[in-house]
Amino acid sequence: MKLPIYLDYSATTPVDPRVAEKMIPYLYENFGNPASRSHSFGWVAEAGVEEAREQVAALVGADPKQIVWTSGATESNNLAIKGAANFYAGTKGKHIITVKTEHKAVLDTVREMERQGFEATYLDVQENGLLDLEVFKAAIRPDTVLASVMFVNNEVGVIQPIAELGEICREKGIIFHVDAAQATGKVDIDLSKLKVDLMSFSAHKTYGPKGIGALYVRRKPRIRLEAQMHGGGHERGFRSGTLATHQIVGMGEAFRIAREEMVEENNRVKALRDKLLKGLQDIEATFVNGDLEHRVAHNLNISFAYVEGESMIMAIKDLAVSSGSACTSASLEPSYVLRALGRDDELAHSSIRFSIGRFTTEEEIDYAVKLLHTKIQKLRDLSPLWDMYKEGIDLNTVQWAAH
Amino acid sequence: MSYSVKVIDHYENPRNVGSLDKDDSSVGTGMVGAPACGDVMKLQIKVNKSGVIEDAKFKTYGCGSAIASSSLVTEWVKGKTVDQALSIKNTEIAEELALPPVKIHCSILAEDAIKAAVADYKKKHGE
Fold it and tell me: SS3 for A351?
């Protein structure tokens, strides 16, 4: 077993060797510009791009014509939200609905729209991280132009009710955008049934390369966008710029593998995740963050009370994981996602996100469980909060000198 | 974030972890910080009859730099009089541990912990 053990598949995934193999020829012999129409170098590159477009479309039940290449999910989110909101503002209005637990690529884009004169509603989630449909309905206004809700949350892995939200939006004539960066290969996505107008994808969360993504743009009913990148009119004018052929081919292959192996892989990953959860549940004062049922198989977000996340990460440096504590940033703010779930600051600071993936082994999970038991005990022996908890003091009744 | 060798040393082998009897009249206890901010330090000093700190213990909830800062000050205050201990500056702690700018607050907290522990001791002695 090699150390450190990678348990941060929600941050990024390694490129599957099959994907890398498929990409390499497009760096050498098939290096042509897919926009070159006058020779075979261009035609070969174009064929690679179009095969990949079909593969991406196939994973999500879309028509290849509805797939627009971008540099990743952040760009897709920007193009979807800015592009649709600006295009339809004149006819529908200038109100946008999103959720407090969205990725920064959505939240910050919506903030920018506010600066440009739009109004925005940031919805609360329930304690389990899920959006309440009634809360969503209540936020809709006559001038609501667009709603953006993520499919799978990156921190706690909960799956939002996208099908139901789509029905509501379609009925009200609201453009519905979904950030699905964390969902591909994890949950079934069928855009022939879902009433979603725009959906963002990323390759590198699904064993493809970094720097490539896609935006699904519905054609029936047709969704129009204001381009954010102008130039040679690539991608039917939605997104100019020479296509990154090798990246695109990689994303296509990654999504082909995801489609073919998803069921089997999710079963295997879920067994490992459940083993990890079971192994950690006997540690006193631990709390799972987010709903366990409406959740992707590979995520476990857990708070070990009275142990601060960053020192925890330091203690378990054999495990590559993420912490909800942001002590590393100047702000000292703990995870806004966990705060939105109603977790108090101490538990938010004490959270660790484990994300399991294609190359995780049972041996690695066993090692992680054992290490966590030892280190948590060590840090709790160091923690004045643990002592207070053991003495039966309610930390919320203590007057802290905030600094 | 990468840590200095000294931070890692104090973090992996923290000095003087533990508790003293807070009701003992020769013990001063300082608890600073807040769980909401991600760090809480408890520093205790035991002062002998001639006003010299003869023992110090800490417990800290916080990042590696916070643990290292409090571990370091337990070493530094031992053998000092309470007034000498008060002269320890956060800048000295930060310099000794090579703390990066985002971790300076950890050294400030450690300085505050000394002040709080001394204040508690002095209060017990009617000063």
Answer: strand
Give the separation between CA A301 and CA A354, rounded to whole angstroms: 6
Confirm if A322 and A353 have CB atoms less than 8 A apart: yes
ipTM: 0.93
pLDDT digits (tens, 9 = 90+) for A345-381: 888 888 999 999 999 999 999 999 999 999 999 999 9
pLDDT over threshold 50, residue A329: no
CA-based radius of gyration for chain A: 22
pLDDT in tens, A205-224: 999 999 999 999 999 999 99
Catalytic residue among B18, B37, B48, B98: B37
- Please tell me the distance from the alpha carbon of residue A265 to that of residue A287, in angstroms, as a whole number: 26
Cβ contact A385–B33 (<8 Å): no
Please state, rounded to an integer, the average pLDDT across all residues of chain A: 95
Predicted structure pTM score:
0.92
Query: Do residues A324 and A301 lie in contact, with contact meaning Cβ atoms separated by under 8 Å?
Result: yes
Interchain contact, B35 vs A346, CB within 8 Å: yes
Yes or no, beta carbons of A384 and B3 under 8 Å apart = no
Distance CA A175, CA A168 (A): 11
Distance of CA A65 to the CA centre of its chain: 24
| φ and ψ of A101, to 5 deg | -100, 10
Place of tokens 């013990």: B27
Interface list for chain A against chain B, based on CB atoms closer than 8 Å: 306-311, 314, 325, 327-330, 332, 334, 344-346, 349, 381-387, 395, 400-403
CB A151 within 8 A of CB A182: yes
The three state secondary structure string of chain B is CCCCHHHHHHHHCCCCECCCCCCCCCEEEEEEEEHHHCEEEEEEEEECCCCEEEEEEEEEECCHHHHHHHHHHHHHHCCCEHHHHHCCCHHHHHHHHCCCHHHHHHHHHHHHHHHHHHHHHHHHCCC
What b-and-e string marks burial along A175-188, b requiring 16 or more CB atoms within 10 Å of the CB?
bbbbbbbbbbbbbe
